[in-house]
Records
---
Amino acid sequence: MKKNGGIPNINLQDCLLFKGLKSTGSISGAAQILKITQPAATQRLNRLEKDLGVSLWVRRGRGQGQLTEEGERFYQYCLRILEFTHEMMSDISSSDQYFRISVVASTIPGEHLLPPFLARYQKANSDHRIQLRVTDSRQAIRLMAAGRADCGITGDPGIDQMKRAGKPGVKLEFIPIAGDRIILAGSRGWVKSHPGHLKWDDLVDETLILREPGSGTRIAVDSAMTAAGLVFPEQSESLILGSTQAVVETIRRDLGIGFISERARGDLQEIPLDGLTPVDRRFYLITIRSKPLRKTVSRFIRELTGYFTDSEH
């Protein structure tokens, strides 16, 4: 570091130099990438080492070399600076070249809530490219915490999951945007042959079709059961399936009864279950509070929340 304690004069060309050193393994190779002479690249490297007070590059002969441990650390910071600069320019630039919007959603929002909105949004913004990934609620939160998506929509992950979400430096924000009801459902034939309400203990004689732990539907059902002091009968048979569509199709084929979102019921019939159903829950919009949003993403989120606000009233 400079003796006067000042900040070293590091610029983007320095970062590009180290990107070139890393990729080519030589000063001459890095100089070619920057389109400068080798002496100019060497002079730039020497200045950085002097300003930082550490050795960044070890020369191995025949024009080759490698980054020192400090050089590797400096290189990682350079990558972050270049990435942030790229993001900053795309956000501030009036042309806003980044028209791709990455969205992650749990099953019900991804398959039932978002498609009508995305169709309308895409029609009005034909130059935008929406990438939608559908997974379970917990994985959606993990992807958001890792910065793998611009925004997400999931079922209620639970307060504890919200508190644990994110990683150092990343703060997620959960905004309720839509409601849902989870019902116990059966085929038309099953409901016709089982009139009236079903008692909890009656489940012992039924095959239960359930989503996997980690899905928003399963989390909501488990939470409601805990609040009601209920557990599944030990003797009951169950099938654990990895998607809502699989649960619906299995119920439709009279292979059991199961808990599903009312939005996905189709021609299935609701089974009144004493002491539990229906289970009310919310869907949440997830954003990264600690990260500035690009203009296109801000617009997308604004129209998304407005769409669901109108739909709920």
Note: The longest strand covers residues 172-186.
---
Amino acid sequence: MKRIYAAAGAAVLMVCLLAGWWFFSHRSQPAPSTAATPVYAYADLEHVVMSHPRYSEYHHLELEYNAMVAQYQFEQWNYSQKAAAEGTSVQNFAAADAAGTAALDQELQAKENELNNRLKQRYDSLVQEKKKTTPVISQADTLKIVNLQLKLKTLSLSKEERAATEEQLQTLLKGSQADVQVTNRTADEIAALMAPDKAQAKKELDDYAQQVKKDLEGRKADSQQVFQQQLGVLQDRPEPAVWNKEWKDKLDAKEKEMEEYNNLIAAGKKSKDNIDDEISNQKQVIQEMESIEKAREEAARKAALAAQNANKSTGQSSASTGVTKTNPNTDSNAGSTQNTVNSATGYIWPLPGYSTVSSDFGYRSDPFTGKQSYHSGIDIPAPAGTRIVAAASGQVAWANYSTTAGNWIGIDHGNGVYTVYMHCSALIVSAGQNVSAGDVIGLVGTTGSSTGNHLHFSVRLNGAYVSPWNYVSK
């Protein structure tokens, strides 16, 4: 069994080794690195413009406005609820007051009924007592009594007859089984007896009414206090007309502030449209530059091939082919005593003797449209024909005419850095020519999209325009 496990483990190990060998032997080799070449590009400024602080400020104002509207709607709802609750509270208090008054009447009525029942019981009791002490005889019995009395007074009766007549008379006088009727005299007696009870009952009813009324007024006072407190809370709201006007003023002010920023944003959008137009122009310029760059590379390749063939055929040293083509119009002393050298970069000022900058690098008001636009360099005004010098040594990448740049020159200084000179009246150098710092390369003019004689000087790094102040100083 152990041998089987060992064999299985060896098989698994072998499979893993084979899989590893296959993976390392078949993995793709990294692509060889290529030399860095200049990159020409243009920016999509949609998000750049949208990220402008005014957009975020407008968004902040919009959030504030929405919060104010929500607060206004909440207060409006809250005050309407308070107004409705106030009406309901007033109705409830009036209903409670009416219910309290009705309860007082019911209590007084119940007390009065109780006292009346007690007086009736007293009256019935007195009537029963009168029956016992003063029997009331009916008219028929009265006639019998009168007859018996007359019989006893007028007739000669035997002892037994007289005794029987007197017994019958006493029985009639004590009362009979006939219905008893109260006479006026008996009623007066009973009324006299009940007078103190009636007075006591009246006093008790009056006292009870006063006590109940006092209790009811106390409860009403407590209810009134609670009601006034509730009413004070419910009435704690501003006058509708004043409140609405205040809110209207606040919302109008915020809307006006938003409108101002919206106008700024609209202007920014117009600037963005102008920038888009500028981008379109820059696309054209970039395409021209790329074409020039390709042509220069092709010319250099052909020149190197021709030199190689010439060296092979003549057997001479190739050193003679590296002679620098110089500018026949170079003035080595041009501006040398008046020019400024940037100690950090070694670049010199391209227009000796003229240091005024009429339009700086970055956003500006377009001289043709008056709208905000991006300025890719600096404008240095000078008289027509003023000599323009190379800011640094390099090779002329292009020297031709462009619709927007006019007669313009681009010099390749290596490492992706180009200096650009626009609106020249004349071009002194040509593409492929090597120049040194301070060589005259062109003359100031106003060709292309220009409003007057000046030099538009730009610096491009890896295809993107950067601030010339990073390279030159006045």
Note: The mean pLDDT is 76.
---
Amino acid sequence: MPLGDRGFWHGFGLFETVRVVGGRLPFLERHVERLRRSALLLGLSADGAGERWAYLAREAVRRGGVEDGTLRLALTAGEGGAFSRPAGRPTVVALAVPGGGYAEEAAERGWRAVVARVRRDSTSLLAAVKSLSYLPSVLARLEAGAAGADEALVLNERGELAEGAAANLFFVRGGCLCTPDLACGVLPGVTRSVVLEEARGWLPVEEGRYGLADLMTAEEAFFTSALAGVMPLLAVGGQPVGEGRPGPVTREMRRRYLRRAGITGRGGAGTGIPAQGGGGTGVPAQGGAGAGVSGRGGAGAGG
């Protein structure tokens, strides 16, 4: 990446995180499509680039020999003036490393959250994209870790539930699966979309506007993300959600998600990638050696 790249200096860019399972990239096409749509929102060139970005992602996994780990795909505006419109093809980087997911034991133990001081601006364009300007989420997760929690619960500027620092939120109330509407400042998560597909036809589903009280009176709750999958949420601010243990809907949804992702029945590392030890913060482990590929976006991207 050039030293003058605007992704480095101004956070002008996007990224995707994809779990690697048995050398495969579950739901890669959905991640690439979200990246393409987000690029267009930011005025970055994305014509015909989806297939090339997917190729770079798979090539990074292949070169690194990564069987179970994490793939990060980043897209930046490239070099240019601070306030100039993006010109030319964006810079694309794909990096695959071992580790970075959560052990199956973490799902049995569940997560605990705190309400972050950071707020999500539901009116911001950045709420709808996975931007390299990720500092608010980082600060929220650091706040959670300092409080001995696994994740931060982020509210929007109206005090409504939005999502976790790095995960979408679901809860069950009156037998209905509820999740904050995208208009609340929610990232359209890939795992979120899979969960909604699995739920429809099985459970009543509602996307709406909710307050913290709605969550705290729910029967059960869980977070979703590419690395965590379906992760039970057991308590917020030290107060239990439901009975304070993984509920039946959460367990069934996790089973369905693992099946869709091709993780069920793999055993060993395939059912969960070891998380970083100590502290109980639930932060993914740091990967060891890996491999990355990069190039200019679009059909002519190098690899």
Note: DSSP finds eight helices and 13 strands in the chain.
